[in-house]
Amino acid sequence: LPATKNMAASKEIRETLRHNPYLMGVPNLAPTDNLLEKTKMLAVTMQDDFCWSVCYDPKFVATMMYCGFLPIATTANGPQRVILLPKLHVRRSCVFLEKLVIRRKAKKEAKSYRFSVNTAFDAVAAGCVRQHGQSWLYPPVIKCFKQISQTEGLPARVHSIELWEGDVLVAGELGYTVGAAYTSLTGFFTGSGAGSAQLACLGKFLVQSDFKLWDLGMHIAYKESLGAAQWPRVFFLHWLAAFRDTPTAFATAGRVDAATLFPPRGQNVPRNPDSKRQRKIADKRARKAAARAARRAERGLPPITQAAGAGAG
To answer: Is the separation of the CB atoms in 67 and 44 below 8 Å?
Structure first.
């Protein structure tokens, strides 16, 4: 059966090339490829951004995401009317989430909305198509993304991000997670300020979920306001590899007041005590406490008890 599938795929590839000869010089990606090795090779040899593929298998497309390709699509001649264009950007707009910038105006606007994740996939996809036209988000792509969003155990997971005003969806985006990295695919907004508010909420949500990298795709000037910079392809792939195998929970919850993502200055934000970051902080505090106790012992002083420490000025 696998051999039969491979033969069918090879026939699709030949037919697509026959009807679209311009693809002859564009690298093809197929399920039979070792994608990790092929990505390393293309990263240094490919002059442009795009490859192509006729395979919409959710596991294969999720593996593309894991390797660093951003899968978009285009129409084609022949029996395969829509083909994938996995994009491996020459330069990619990214930001380390520890350096994320959220403007005061965006925070203020965000607090009047409600925020949710993974509750309205179809509505978000429809909003993206409504704002941008069909563009690259064709029905086969939406179907594949939805399958990836609903399937456990794949190397990547697609999510829908939603911003609400009352019961009205006013902004949202589709994106995907690979370990501790999040990639924005496409989004929409319906009113002034809603798009900026959605990005602000998403950014804070990623930080509070202990994500490390936000991949914003192609460079557009507004992304610089979030602290994003243009990363060369090899640099991006290096950091994606550093974070993609870090287990990171992307919370799925109902609608919450966006204001809860932006507590007043000085108010601690509850964090997951079992997260890798919080364990590091706890270990650092424990080492400092041990060092202080050792110094007191050397000076012949008694250890500080919790009660004594609580009353210390």
So the answer is: no
Which among 181, 168, 19, 178 is positioned nearest to 96, based on CA atoms?
A: 181
- Residue among 193, 187, 191 nearest 105 (CA): 193
Residue 144 structure tokens? 């594949």
The residues with which 257 forms a beta bridge, in sequence order, are 114
Q: Give the integer Cα–Cα distance in Å for 137 and 73.
A: 7
**Tens-level pLDDT at each residue, the chain (313 residues):** 344 445 456 788 888 888 888 899 999 999 999 999 999 999 999 999 999 999 999 999 999 999 999 999 999 887 778 999 999 999 999 999 999 999 988 888 888 999 999 999 999 999 999 999 988 999 999 999 999 999 999 999 999 999 999 999 999 999 999 999 999 999 999 988 899 999 999 999 999 999 999 999 999 988 999 999 999 999 999 999 999 999 887 766 678 899 988 887 655 555 556 666 777 888 888 888 888 888 878 887 777 654 333 333 3
| Enclosing H/E stretch for 7 | helix 2-19
